[in-house]
Amino acid sequence: MFNKEAYERIKGEIPSNIKILAATKTKTSEDIIEAMNCGVRIIGENYVQEAEEKYEKLKNLFKEKKISFHLIGHLQSKKARKAVEIFDCIQSIDSIKLAEKINNACQELNKKIEVMIEINFGEEQKSGILIEHLNDLINQIKKLEHINLIGLMCIPPIGKEEETYKQMKELQTEYCLKELSMGMSSDYKTAINHGSTIIRLGTILFGERKI
């Protein structure tokens, strides 16, 4: 169930230019409809297969309410075409191979898609690109005609949120990118203090996930 009171409280706390993404992994289509009816305009999903099932039920409502549908989880190259079909933005680009797959799918579908690059701060178990490879990836993505690189995204190492977000802001400034997708239910205020433009909220809006 969507927590309207929490959503309204957070909206009142944060600057008006900060966008709230409702992270709806494991949530039902009914939960998403409730969020949209309360004013949420960005929906984020982690998995293509789960997102596809919801998209088929909700695509007409998405169009009617002008919802932006984002992929915020890791994307396998083999699912790039399906992701391009259903999403408006893919936040988790981490290789030129994946970017090229997305670009080729966009060309076939006559579509241009917004993307963000996911940064990994040295955690082997997480996806994302290491900072030392970021410059090369950005330069390669800029050559792809059907991809519009709009920003950077990260999940910070636990206990290193503040320094991670500070570094993300420096990278955004260095590369003149519009968006910074960082901050979740537990640390969104810290992220906003360091320049986040999109906060990805799940637990605080929907309660704990079902395993």
Description:
By secondary structure, the chain is α/β, with parallel strands linked by helices. The protein has one domain (4-206): TIM Barrel (Alpha-Beta Barrel), CATH 3.20.20. Helix content is 43%, strand content 20%. Helix 4 crosses helix 5 (96-109). The longest helix has 18 residues, at 48-65. The chain starts with a helix and ends in a 5-residue tail after the last helix. The model has no long low-confidence stretch (mean pLDDT 96).
Give a short overview.
The chain has 211 residues and is of the alpha/beta class. The chain is built from nine helices and nine strands. Helix 4 packs across helix 5 (96-109).
Fold blueprint:
Layout: H1 4-13, E1 19-23, H2 29-37, E2 42-45, H3 48-65, E3 68-71, H4 80-86, E4 89-93, H5 96-109, E5 113-120, E6 129-130, H6 134-141, E7 147-154, H7 161-174, E8 179-181, H8 188-193, E9 198-201, H9 203-206
Parallel strand pairs: 1-2, 1-9, 2-3, 3-4, 4-5, 5-6, 5-7, 7-8
Helix pairs in contact: 4-5
Radius of gyration: 16 Å
Overall pLDDT, averaged?
96
Which structural category do the helix and sheet elements fall into?
alpha/beta
List the total number of helices.
9
Apparent shape? globular
State the major sheet.
Answer: 9 strands, parallel
* Overall tally of domains: 1
Give the N-terminus to C-terminus distance in angstroms: 16 Å
Share of β-strand residues: 15-25%
CATH fold category name: TIM Barrel
Query: How would you name the CATH homologous superfamily?
Result: Alanine racemase
Query: How many beta-strand segments?
Result: 9
Helix-strand string:
HEHEHEHEHEEHEHEHEH
User: Unreliable runs, pLDDT <50, ≥5 residues?
Assistant: none
CATH class: Alpha Beta
Helix content: 40-55%
The CATH architecture name reads Alpha-Beta Barrel
